[in-house]
Amino acid sequence: MFESLLIANRGEIARRIIKTARELGVRTIAVHSEADADLPFVREADEAVLIGPADPAASYRNYEAILAAAKETGAAAIHPGYGFGSEHPGFARAVIEAGIAWVGPSPEAIEAMGDKINARNIMSAAGVPVAPGTGEPVADVDAAIARAAEVGYPVMVKAAAGGGGMGMAVAQDAEGLPKVFEQIQGVAGRLFGSADVLIERFYPRVRHVEVQILGLPDGRVLTLGERECSVQRRNQKLVEETPSPALTPELRARFMDAARKAGEAVGYRNAGTVEFLLDVESGDFFFLEMNTRLQVEHPITETVYGVDLVAAQLAVAEGRDPGIEVGEPSGHAIEFRVNAEDPKRFLPGPGVITEWVEPSGEGVRVDSGYGDGNTVPRFYDSLMAKLVVSGPDRASALAKAREALKDFRIAGPKQNLPFFLELLDNDEFTSGAYDTGIVGRMR
Predict the structure, then answer these.
(1) Is the peptide bond before 40 cis (omega within 30 degrees of 0)?
(2) Separation CA 343–CA 341 (nearest Å)
(3) Residue limits of the Biotin carboxylation domain (predicted)?
(4) In angstroms, rounded to a whole number, what is the distance separating the alpha carbons of residues 122 and 137?
(5) pTM
(6) How far apart are the C-alpha atoms of 241 and 66, rounded to whole Å?
(7) DSSP 233
(8) Contact of 116 with 160, CB cutoff 8 Å
(9) How far is CA 407 from the centre of its chain?
(10) Which residues of the chain have pLDDT under 70?
(11) Main-chain dihedrals φ then ψ at residue 390, nearest 5 degrees
(12) What is the pLDDT of residue 132?
């Protein structure tokens, strides 16, 4: 077991990693910005190092400062969490070259999956279903119009290096495509450092279903079930659940097989997620992307499969088999992302927390990054906490969710708890027959 672990992240995921590391007897090192100096993760780590001001580029994306902190504190390993440097192949490579263990997949796997066009081509060659689309960057508007005519409208225009639901937009027809193409090409260059764009067929009614994979040191790729992620705003997830209400046993087996092939195609090691879109009309599903890191929503998988994915990540990074026996899921779990944003338009609303009361009890788990008196800063993602509820079946999990959401009290910053209560009164959601358009229909 690693003697020490530096967590190159912040907030709730840093606390989550610290919790498992402490249980394993591993010394933990937090790095933090000036804005986060008073947050719980800094206090709970065995050691904490200030790495820069609030601006992420000067702190959590300041990889030289993070590496310097690791060397200064004698960290044996670095866990990147999610976001920031977690899918930056250059950071992973620098960590490994410094003689420090990287708790994640190889830089080569991160690089291969970081470009959506390359990822599509690798998956297609491996027999993983992909949506009709382009296998190379689309150079200009004329080329985009020609390729879209081949793919068929409507089309999704995507930044090849994009992720996290950003850098994509729909063109309904040839008249609207030039504006959408130029918009996404500009966003791609500005946000992701590459103006490369691809085009895929857009399916109006889809469900977003992902599969948790774990690549082992001996080359095997385990699949630990699926997560339904179709409750989204601006292509970003708000609620996830497992098992998915949409999958039959036969369809589930096909998802698992495709995800396993995806992991094997890039020699995947450690925890990752293969994301798919399931077309509601046809029942066909297509590869969307592979997230080469731990997902925000990993707790619901832990809940129904009885595993600790962070412990498994550490074991694999050490070259050990984590000893996970994959069985059938036990019960049903739902995660709600509690964000500092208004519940109507989902606009950020950071501020000082004047009241913070978390729900508790059987079947309730809260992974939080904040507490009473803390400030939710404007510099980072608005996620404050994740409420995870579980029960023997979906109906009992929904009932538990209603209780827990009413018991969760937050004052000060804006928060989206009222939206979740509204969602639980929505017949489309409670029936389980919803898709990625549900939030738009509610609004």
Answers:
(1) no
(2) 6
(3) 1-443
(4) 15
(5) 0.95
(6) 34
(7) E
(8) yes
(9) 26
(10) none
(11) -145, 160
(12) 94
